[in-house]
Amino acid sequence: MEKILMKGNEACAEAAIRAGCKCYFGYPITPQNEITAYMSKHLPKIDGGVFVQAESEIGAINMIYGCAGSGSRCMTSSSSPGISLKSEGISYIVGADLPCVIVNVQRGGPGLGTIQPSQADYWQATKAIGHGDMRIPILAPASAQEMVDMTLKAFRIAEEYRTPVMILADGLLGQMMEPVSFDNKSLPEADSSWAANGHANSRPKNTINSLYLDPLELEQKIKERFKRYEQITEKEVGAVYDKGAKIVVAAYGSTARVARSAVDKARAEGINAGLFRPQTLWPFPKKQLIEATENAKVVLVTEMSMGQMVDDVKMSLEFKLPVQFFGRTGGFVPNPDEILTKIKELEVSDNA
Amino acid sequence: MINLKKIIVITGHYGSGKTNVSANLALHLAEFGSVSIIDLDVVNPYFRAADLRCTAEGDCSDAARFFSEKGVSIVASKYANSSLDIPALGFAVTGAIKTSDYTVIDVGGDDEGAKALGRYLDILSPEQTDMFYVVNMYRYHTQKPQEALDLLRDIETVSGLKCTGIINNSHLCTQTTPETITASLPYAEEIAKQAGVPLVFTTGNRELNCKNVNFPIDILVKPIWV
Q1: Angstrom distance (rounded) from CA A114 to CA A236
Q2: What digits encode the pLDDT tens for the residues B93-113?
Q3: Are strands A177-180 and A273-278 parallel, antiparallel or unpaired?
């Protein structure tokens, strides 16, 4: 298949268009601007394509709410501070059971933080992306090619389970260039019999709503939604990992690329290290982690944060293995040698 | 050495590899005199010449240490790569051009990036300035000669400078093979012919030993794990 060089951000935007995304609403913020810029150039050229640079992040997510409610395939993207602003809208979209794709190309925080890469929105994405009893699937690409593949997958999951899906990338993935290829499959038209897109007096009217004043009705809605979460946990979870390692390094996104280098160097020096890379952060790949750590004496979590994935790793392992952490934050990317040093420390440590 | 003027402006499509070409060109020129690289990239927050600089505290990446050892000075906004990443170069550019034997100006991508050149037009006289256009056949949006030529015209229009040569930097990052490069030659030659300027050189990773590469380069701008 033909390969072309694209930035992660561009690859994501092109993949969305090829997946059949018709509408994009967004507001500029570094380091995800190439998505917005690409959409502004290319989306209006396709049949029925709509690009709007919204007046704010809040405006953009509410345009998504309306657009998704009409059954159109739609996407927004932002970076960390912008995702915080979108949070209320995301909760409303969940409450109304609407499909859409949200991309977060993370930068350092809190506050305005930095425009350099980060993974410090893990907790926000997996535990608290909006108020209320809710989750949304979080996909974690680690290459420009996965930005392509997971964008397609995100739309598929969104429509199959009628939920927003987030692609949690980071500034480095968005900005770096890699060869990518696109297969020409687009998603089939989804069922949109629920959409509020004009009934023309030919069917009962559809309502898009997240307000339920009757507690019984709301509880039933939530329980039904959690049934879908069970299916997502069962069917859509993903990870890639080495088997049989004594020291398992757990990392996602671009940190997993750094960790891969470190693990390969460790192996070249005779250390039995392996990599565990979650491709979904919610649902967290618990069974896969258990399988990857069958022979392990210790797990080393590495992230561009203060260790936000550590608890998920510990809980997935039911606290049966020691879990250590090494990370950089504030916009720093850990380098392979730093991680290698940590692996070597664990190799000789008795209390690991 | 390649016969070059005192000031070499490197333009091209966003992501064509301008910074890596600029860095290699500067190292080449350092063998013949003093060299400055000017990071005029106002478009891109990552993977830029400013990354090749040591910090005020003296922290240097391997690439930055290499540059300072070779005596190449890197001129970039002190705000580059910060949250206040504003194009504030001002007098440093003029100073660097006046005091260096050679100055390589690494411009931001596309016509958007080339706009920053307008500010310095008064010192970029045609007699002492080359403007090279970096092309990569594998980069989206410039895969066909005509697309690359259309973008070149936009860059010339906003910068007020005329292109004086083409640099063929066609590659697929770590997946590049000698064949990848060889396959790009007709593309680069066609662009040079249509633009009416010479094909200055074809680059390629030194480690590939491709016979069609006449300017072997080191990959100095890359993700941390490569």
Answers
A1: 33
A2: 888 888 999 999 999 888 888
A3: unpaired
List, in order, residues 6 or more apart from A256 with CB less than 8 Å away: A142, A275, A277
CATH architecture of A4-235: 3-Layer(aba) Sandwich (3.40)
Closest CA to A163 of A187, A115, A130, A141: A130
Sequence ranges of the domains in chain A: 4-235, 240-351
User: Which residue carries 């979080």 as its tokens?
Assistant: A138
Q: Which residues are CB-neighbours of A281 under 8 A, at least 6 positions away?
A: A122, A125, A126, A138, A139, A140, A168, A252, A309, A312
What is the CATH number that goes with domain A240-351? Answer: 3.40.50.920
| CA proximity to A118, closest of A32, A58, A177, A35 | A32
Tokens representing B90 are: 């001002």
- The residues facing A165 across adjacent strands are A101
> Would you give the end-to-end CA distance of chain B in angstroms?
30
Classified as helix, coil or strand, A148 is: helix
B45: which chain A residues are within 8 Å (Cβ-Cβ)?
30-31, 115-116, 171, 175
pLDDT digits (tens, 9 = 90+) for A113-144: 999 999 999 999 999 999 999 999 999 999 99
**A240-351 and A4-235 share a CATH fold:** yes
Q: The complex's ipTM?
A: 0.83
pTM score above 0.90: yes
Largest CA distance in chain B: 48
Whether B223 sits inside 8 A of A254 (CB atoms) is yes
Q: In the structure encoding, which two tokens stand for residue A208, read together? A: 């898009």
Beta bridge partners of A78: A104
Which residues in chain B are closer than 8 Å to A6, comparing Cβ atoms? 15, 139-140
pLDDT at B77: 72
